[in-house]
Design a protein that fits this description.
The complex is a heterodimer of chains A (about 60) and B (about 140). Chain A is mainly α. Helices cover about 80% and strands about 0% of the residues of chain A. Chain A has 2 helices and no strands. Chain B is mainly alpha-helical and about 140 residues long. Classes of the chains: A mainly alpha (about 60), B mainly alpha (about 140). The interface between A and B is medium-sized, with 20 and 27 residues.
Chain lengths: ~60, ~140
């Protein structure tokens, strides 16, 4: 198995993509709703990623 | 055995026969998205297959470890071990193949290994969502 060495950001970004795809597909009933919900989830992940990242940086000084 | 006829709200909430949903759900457990393929939802099946498989492969590539169902020194450790094992097992065929061919790696310190372990666990959890979705489609709760 090839070794993959990802940074925290890269790992979190990939995690967001995969989880958003599955959440979008499984949570809603129409195609439009699925696409919108998937994008919404992805957006929330990215906002949380940057938000919590900055909060930790500012918290640590 | 035939179920007795029910009326009103009871009939709406009646459990659908197992023959309708068992095969798609079992297929979805063994191969992510296979339940959707069986139910002719190929686009969604392909996306689920890709997302869960890639997540699992990235987890293995990052050196993530599989949980084993064993008692720990305290309640929390046991809970993590058993919970993690159930999530790993939910990845179905991928988990079975990975352990059979020796890709189950020991738990090692390091952030990348830790991300890998989380990826492996999450792949199983996402597969549970895919199985529930296949069930809902099979019993007609969803298109």
């Amino acid at each position: 198995m090839p070794k993959i060495n990802l940074s925290h950001f890269e790992a979190a970004f990939l995690f967001s993509v995969f989880v958003s795809v599955v959440m979008g597909i499984t949570s809603k009933k129409t195609q439009n709703e699925r696409v919108h919900y998937g994008l919404y989830c992805f957006g929330c992940f990215i906002v949380a990623l940057f938000g919590i990242g900055w909060a930790m940086r500012l918290g640590h000084g | 055995m035939e179920s007795t006829p029910q009326t009103g709200a009871d009939s709406r909430e009646a459990t659908p026969p197992m023959t309708v949903w068992l095969l798609p759900v079992l297929a979805a457990w063994i191969i992510p998205g296979a339940g959707h393929f069986m139910l002719k939802k190929t686009g969604r099946g392909a996306l689920l297959f890709g997302a869960v498989l890639l997540m699992f492969l990235f987890g293995l590539g990052m050196g993530g470890s599989m949980f084993t169902p064993e008692k720990g020194p305290d309640y929390l450790t046991s809970l993590i071990n058993y919970g993690g094992f159930i999530c790993n097992l939910a990845a179905g065929g991928m988990y079975l193949l990975a352990t059979m061919f020796g890709y189950s790696q020991p738990d090692m310190p390091g952030d990348v290994h830790d991300y890998g372990t989380k990826f492996l666990v999450t792949a199983g959890l996402l597969n549970i969502l895919a199985m529930v979705d296949a069930y809902e489609i099979a019993v007609g709760k969803k298109d």
